[in-house]
Each structure stands twice: as structure tokens, then as C-alpha cells.
């Protein structure tokens, strides 16, 4: 556990151990106190319990994973209570609820970057079929909305355990 009330010695020990390639620590439950500037390359999964406070905080927290170039995954598990809290920005609440069923990545990036970048991202979502055991097109690597748009018979049907097992298998090869 890593939060603002965690003793500094414990924080130092957790971070030192978690950064090791053969770490005994496989998961850290943390608040935003885990901090910006943290660069642990092989984090594969970030899970947000409750709605993030803003689009920027979501992006920074999600950016903790996949820093080594492998595919990473960021999940938001939310309820309407956390979405409706006063400290939850309206823009992230709208994205999380996604009543329009539009690309989540495009919505986030449209608030954080220029529209030219967002337009080029939308144009790149094409699947021409895959020869793999599972589809790896830009639809399947984008978000939970886009994955449903992939026409491929082998498209990814999301399962966290399958994702994590796949990453470990890729490491062996």
C-alpha cells in the first residue's frame, strides 16, 4: 500500500523493491501519492478504482504503464457515486460515462492536444484482417469502444488475465 500517510521508510522500500526486474512485489495499491516522475518501465496494468478527478490526472496515472514499449492497459472501474462527486471534473465524468459511445482515447486527447493529432489518430483505425491468434490492429489496441468496431473474426475480447498472460508469454519469446 502506498499513500500519503505511508511512512517514508516504507515508501522508499516499496519503490526500491518494485523497480527490480525480479521483484517480489507484483502489485502496488496506491493513491496519487505514488507520484509524478515515477518511471518503472515494465508496469503492464493500471487500474483506477473510482472515477479519476480530471482528464489530466487520468492521463498521468494511465501513463505509468507500458513505458517499455509493450502494450499496456488502463482500466477505470467506477460507480455513479464517484462520477458525481464534486471533486470529479465534468469532462472526465462525461468520458467515463461515454453516453455517445465514442472513442475514449480521442475524447481524452481532444482535451489534451491539438485537433490535428486527434484527427490523424481517428484515421489510423483500420483493420485489414490478421493472421495472428488474436487481432492486433489499431482498433483492438485503442479502447473498449473501438475494439467493438473491429471487423476481424479474431478481434480481442477483453480479459485482464488473458492480457497479463499474453504479456508474460511475449517476454519468454
UniProtKB/TrEMBL annotation:
Gene Ontology terms: biological process: double-strand break repair via homologous recombination; telomere maintenance
Enzyme Commission code: 5.6.2.4
EC primary class: isomerase
Catalytic activity of the protein: Couples ATP hydrolysis with the unwinding of duplex DNA by translocating in the 3'-5' direction
Record-annotated Helicase C-terminal domain positions: 1-112
Matches recorded under SMART domains: HELICc
Keyword Hydrolase: yes
Domain of life: Eukaryota
Keywords, in A-Z order: Hydrolase
Entries under Gene3D superfamilies matching the protein: P-loop containing nucleotide triphosphate hydrolases (3.40.50.300)
Family designation: Belongs to the helicase family. RecQ subfamily.
Name of a matching Pfam family: Helicase_C
Any GO CC annotation of this UniProt entry: cytoplasm
Molecular function per GO: 3'-5' DNA helicase activity; four-way junction helicase activity; hydrolase activity
Protein name according to UniProt: DNA 3'-5' helicase
Amino acid at each position: 500500500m502506498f499513500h500519503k500517510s505511508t511512512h517514508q521508510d516504507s515508501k522508499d522500500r516499496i519503490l526500491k523493491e518494485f523497480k527490480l526486474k525480479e521483484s517480489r512485489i507484483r502489485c502496488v495499491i496506491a493513491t496519487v501519492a505514488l507520484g509524478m516522475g515515477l518511471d518503472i518501465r515494465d508496469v503492464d496494468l493500471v487500474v483506477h478504482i473510482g472515477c479519476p478527478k480530471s482528464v489530466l490526472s487520468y492521463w498521468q496515472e494511465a501513463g505509468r504503464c507500458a513505458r517499455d514499449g509493450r502494450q499496456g492497459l488502463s482500466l477505470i472501474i467506477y460507480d455513479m457515486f464517484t462520477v458525481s462527486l464534486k471533486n470529479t471534473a465534468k469532462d472526465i465524468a462525461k468520458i467515463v460515462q461515454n453516453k455517445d459511445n465514442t472513442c475514449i482515447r480521442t475524447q481524452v486527447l481532444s482535451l489534451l492536444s491539438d485537433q490535428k493529432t486527434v484527427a490523424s489518430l481517428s484515421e489510423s483505425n483500420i483493420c485489414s484482417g490478421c493472421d495472428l491468434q488474436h487481432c492486433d490492429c489499431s482498433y483492438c489496441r485503442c479502447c473498449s469502444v473501438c475494439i467493438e468496431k473491429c471487423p476481424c473474426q479474431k478481434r480481442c475480447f477483453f480479459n485482464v488475465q488473458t492480457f497479463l498472460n499474453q504479456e508474460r508469454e511475449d517476454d519468454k519469446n
